[in-house]
Amino acid sequence: MKHRHSIATTAVHPDPAAPTARRLALLALLGLPIALALPRARAHGDQHHGKAAGPVIKEQKPWGIAAEPREAKRTVEIRMTDDMRFNPSHLEVREGETLRLRAVNRGKVMHEIVIGTREELETHAELMRQHPNMEHDEPYMAHVAPGQRGDIVWTFNRPGEFEFACLIPGHFEAGMRGTIRVTARK
Ligand SMILES: [Cu+2]
């Protein structure tokens, strides 16, 4: 099943419960391809949720840029558990390094890993709270069903302090997040 949507082509369904202006402001702030108000069967918790087929869109983000799997020089396994923790919860990366982040869901419920700046993740988490069925799929995130694993291949070409988190409502608030330090190239 394909889950890639672009904001330009996605119909935003009227939602009387949420002020439209605020929602649109959040969408604009995030710049995320988002589909709202889709049927629950295709919602965020869908176990068949997979990466969309086709070429990955490589867009420079403050926290890096998508890369091809063959470019990954190092694989870091990150375990996700139902106590709402990532293990490890901190990554050290060198500027320019391409990592394969292999998220392994050891729990019994859906988890996800999304990397970004703290601000971006907090804004995104707020949007997820307002729209629990929101779908999203970007090269810097992986949605992982129980017992499954998902990869993010990412080049950390900007130094700085970043984070990763599970943005499923309730998980983020319970502290399902971690930190990434990208040290500048000497
Ligand atoms: Cu989670």
Task: Summarize the helices and strands and which ones pair or pack.
Elements: H1 20-30, E1 65-66, E2 74-81, E3 85-87, E4 90-94, E5 97-105, E6 111-116, H2 118-130, E7 141-144, E8 149-156, E9 160-165, E10 177-183
Parallel strand pairs: 2-5, 4-10
Antiparallel strand pairs: 1-8, 2-3, 5-8, 6-7, 6-9, 9-10
Helix pairs in contact: 1-2
Bound molecules: copper (II) ion.
Copper (II) ion is lined by residues 111, 166, 168, 171, 176.
Strand order in space, largest sheet = 1-8-5-2-3
Q: Which radius of gyration do the C-alpha atoms yield?
A: 16 Å
How many helical elements? Answer: 2
Assigned CATH architecture: Sandwich
What's the story with the biggest beta sheet? 5 strands, mixed
> And the CATH topology?
Immunoglobulin-like
| Mean pLDDT value | 80
Distance between the termini: 44 Å
Helix content: 10-25%
Low-confidence stretches: 1-50
**Would you list the SSEs in sequence order as H and E?**
HEEEEEEHEEEE
CATH class: Mainly Beta
Query: What is the name of the CATH superfamily?
Result: Cupredoxins -  blue copper proteins
What is the tally of beta strands?
10
Bound molecules: copper (II) ion
Looking at the structure, what is the overall shape? Answer: globular
Beta-strand residue percentage: 25-35%
Our count of domains comes out at 1
Structural class: alpha+beta
